[in-house]
Structures are given as C-alpha cells and as structure tokens.
Amino acid sequence: MVTVNEDLAKRSKFAYNDIEEDDAIASKIEKTGKEVIKLNRGDPPQYIKTPDYIIDAYVDALRSYKTGYVDMTGIKELREAVSDRYARSYKAKVSPENVIVTQGVSEALAFLNNVLINDRDQAILFAPYYPQYMPLLQMYGGSPIIEKYSEKLNWNLDIDSLGRSLKRMAKPQLRKVKYMMITNPNNPTGTVLKRDYLEDIVDLANEYGLFLVSDEIYDEIVYNGAKFTSVSEVANGVPHMILNGASKVYDSTGFRIGFMIIPGTDKFSSKVSAKLKDYATVRLSVNTPAQYAIAAAITNKKEHEKAIKNMVKEISDRVNYAYNLLKKNEYLDIVKPNGSFYIFPKIKLDLLKIKDDNDFVVKLLKDKNLQVTRGSGFGGDGHFRIVSLPTKSILKESVDRINDFCEENKKK
Ligand SMILES: Cc1ncc(COP(=O)(O)O)c(C=O)c1O
C-alpha cells in the first residue's frame, strides 16, 4: 500500500489556544460530579440574552428565505449601516465600499495578516494583548515586536517607551513592520485608552510610517466615567484600519459577524482595501441571515440604545462588584476597569507559595474548581483574567474561592 506523506504544514504548529488546556482539566473535574465555576469566556449571550429585536430580525431574514450566497464583501445594507454608525458616532467618513464583512474579528485578523505579512515581517503588539493576534500573525510567517501597556498608567499606552523603541529601530527593520495593533477598550485589562495617548500614537505612526490597526470590538461597553475615542476620530490622514463587530456590543457572539473598516483614501489604504476584497472572493460570503439581523440591529437606533444602556449598566454593576470584592484581597493588585468586562489582577507572587500565573490558575482550578485565564497567554505574566459577566452571587462565590485559595497558599 502507498503511504501518504504525513508531514503537516510547518505553519500548523502555530494553531493553538491556551484555553483548551484548562478546559481539559475542567472537564476532568466535572466528570467526577463536581461543578466548575467558569470565568474564562468573554461570551455575553451566555449571561445576558441577545435582545429580542435582533433575534426577530434574524428570524425574519430566515422566513424571507434570505438563505443564499450574498455579496462576498458583505450585504450592502450592513456595510451601509456600519458606515453610518462610524459617521454618526465618530464623525468618520467611511464609504460602504471600504467596509468588509467577515466572520467575526477573528476572520478579519486572518485577512489582515494574509494581505500584509510576508515571511520575516513583523507587527507591533502591545502586551497584554488579545491572544488570537499572535497565532494568526505567526501562521503567515510574521513575528511580533512586543511593546507594553503600562500598568502604572492604568494600562494606558507608554508612549515614551514606544517612542524610544521606534527610534532605536534601524530603517530596514522598520520597513518590515507591517502594522501596529492596539485594542481599545482592552481585553484583558478592561482599559479604555485616553484620547491624548491615541493622538500620540497616531503621531508616532505618522513619523515612522506605520499602518495603525485599532480593534474596537468593545467600543460601546464603556463605564466608570470613561470616554471612548475611536482611532478614526484622531487619525488625521494617517493610514489605519478599524476592526469591529457584532459579537460584544450587539450581544451576538454566535452570529459570527465582524467588520474591517479602512477609512483612508490614500494610495496604501486603497490598495489594502482592494486586496481584502479579493480575499473575500476566495472564501465566498458570510452567514446571510446573521448579516441581515446585524444590519437591522445597527439601524434600529432606538432599540439598540435601550439594549446597550441596559447591558452596560448590568456589566458595570458586575465588574465594579467583583472589583470591590477583589481589591480587599491583599495578595492581588488591580487596576480598576472602565471598559469591556474583564478584570486583570496582578498576583503578588512574593507573598504566595505559587510559582507563576500558570501555577496559580491550574491550582485554583484543581483546588477550588474555579476557572480563570492565565495572564501569560495575554503576554501579561504574573496576572490572571476574570470574565466578570456572571451574576453577583456567582462572582461573590468566585471571589470567596480566590480568597480562600490565597490564604491556603500564603507564605508563612
Ligand atoms: C479584543 C478582541 N478582539 C476580537 C475578538 C474576537 O471576536 P469575534 O467574535 O468578532 O471573532 C475578541 C473576542 O473575545 C476580543 O476580545
């Protein structure tokens, strides 16, 4: 019998997600009949129902048999709705032609790297970062240059440090840097970046010729007095791309709808936009009824305003509740979040008989049946991430377990 060539593609080694390892431990515990509290998935519909007006729009699309392939870059109604939303909220002039609908921001990341990254190219990421940025960059042959959000600046950008790093880079290296990615509001830190930091980063992008990518998937989930600024408001002609989607703000992670927005009319932006559209033709179109549902969701401002107001109130109540309980724990240091729905405590490892954040997360899961996410997976070693979406009683129980765990593992 002829044997097949068993070599997998080299790039396949980059396909991983830390979550799987902890999920395997959690399922083992669950098989023994114990219940595991899971604070590890940023999945709002699990906790706050997708609004009925969006469900109705989805059902209407199905009932009208909108079930075939559609425009590969996204239905016109949705691209127009996204363009209007950015004009309305951020005074950004975006032609619907420069909006591309993807299967979530996750697919947008694949598009981005597909179009820009050659072997040995680089991208600037800021740690802590959303983990999925990394495998997709690496799969396409790229590597990251890691800059840092500053915990001392409440996880805002450390512009001076970025300026120094860019200054140190020689021209040939800079030419290999294909984009610089920020996440605002942030996952995992829950920080909304201040406008002046964004203006500074735009200036640096301009000075060093860097394409700026801003992941704004949590743009309306902002509270505790913070004000969100879109990069499109401050870009001032600097070529940039906005990533956004329906998953979080429209409470519909399972619909798998994301958007890439390339507002610029400069030569490079036009080239990127055209090539992204070519990529869309390779994978055909995105889920059709979901696109109609999200077009209706964005267009129905009255219903959306009601839904997002309730959602942000619920989320901020839950985040602040968990934050206020956690900050009493003397083994943790926490920056108060003001956006998204995550809390990212630093573990005071010098006070505990715990080696690092991996050790903390795995032991917490095994000993207390509480699943959180390791900070090192976000490039934030020594931290862990909590998804603060469950009810207050679950959050209280979770913090009790963390407190007990820390007490049981404190250095004598
Ligand atoms: C910052 C950030 N970007 C992108 C995504 C992926 O979202 P989508 O559901 O649109 O693929 C997430 C999901 O948690 C996220 O936190």
TrEMBL record:
Cofactors that this protein relies on: pyridoxal 5'-phosphate
The entry's keywords: Aminotransferase, Pyridoxal phosphate, Transferase
Residues covered by the Aminotransferase class I/classII large domain: 35-402
GO molecular function terms listed in the Swiss-Prot or TrEMBL record: pyridoxal phosphate binding; transaminase activity
Signal peptide stretch: none
One Pfam family, short name: Aminotran_1_2
Matching InterPro entries: Ala_Aminotransferase (IPR051926), Aminotransferase_I/II_large (IPR004839), PyrdxlP-dep_Trfase (IPR015424), PyrdxlP-dep_Trfase_major (IPR015421), PyrdxlP-dep_Trfase_small (IPR015422)
Domain of life: Archaea
Record's protein name: Aspartate/tyrosine/aromatic aminotransferase
Protein's organism: Candidatus Mancarchaeum acidiphilum
